[in-house]
Amino acid sequence: MRVEIAPGVRLFVDVEGPGLVPDGAQMREKPTLICMHGGPGFDHSAFKPGFSRLADLVQIIYYDHRGHGRSDPRPSSEWTLDHWADDIVRLCDALGIVKPIVLGQSFGGFVAQHYIARHPGHASKVILSSTSHHMGLERKLAAFERRGGPQARAAADAFWRTPSPASWQAYWQACRALYNTRPPLDPQAGERTLINEQILLHFVAGEKQALQLLPGLARAQCPVLVMVGEDDPVCPLEDALEIAAALPAERLQLARFPGVGHGAWRDDPEAAYAVLRQFIAAA
């Protein structure tokens, strides 16, 4: 369905599972998990069907960021972290969601970090998965070279410094298989993903270049889980450790996954979903 979150702004939203479930003589309300996808320029489909295994604990809201996927097209002036972070609040207001659990994967983690800074009291919990707080180009290049050699480093360098349709295609061809350490459980997941290349290139050439999200993390007012694959080349371990250090210590839970790349549930689903379940269920 498409939900209007502001005049003329509609997001594609999909809901999995009931919010109220029978529990003896009462109806019990489950918490709401809002899943924010990576990219930019991608859609929510990478969360499916894996995240369905959490539906017994939470009602899951999947959505496509403003301008992305099946959400309505929007002008490039709205392709900003300010808009995307504020859209979480707008979406919750439209759906009547109070104190959601907000999960941001990769680029969705940029949005979630900015959301913490702008709306620190809004969420009940936040999950920052396989994400970074800055460009951190040298770390990326070194990691891609370790995993794919000089050719991968050169492709990554060309794309992240000078994003264009040509450098993007060369990068995706040379580096996409290096994001993860194990063959995909769902080999056709990438084919199902809708990609808006214009948003991708606009963000990487613009806001991404000077990205600095650490200062706002000190404002966190809820528990925050930082999940990182220790062999993630595009959002390296060092970035996650710096994110963790910037958060209030009493709010932080850090989960490191050895031998894992980008998106821990892709390379080690049993361990990743166990961590998610524990964090979601904790009081």
TrEMBL record:
Pfam families, sorted: Abhydrolase_1
Start and end residues of each AB hydrolase-1 domain: 31-263
- Record keywords: Hydrolase
What GO molecular function annotation could you give as one example from this UniProt entry?
A: hydrolase activity
Q: State whether keyword Secreted applies.
A: no
Record's keyword annotation contains Hydrolase: yes
Q: Which Gene3D superfamilies match?
A: alpha/beta hydrolase (3.40.50.1820)
| Name by which UniProt lists this protein | Alpha/beta hydrolase
Q: Please state which protein family the record places this protein in.
A: Belongs to the peptidase S33 family.
Q: Which organism is it from?
A: Roseateles aquae
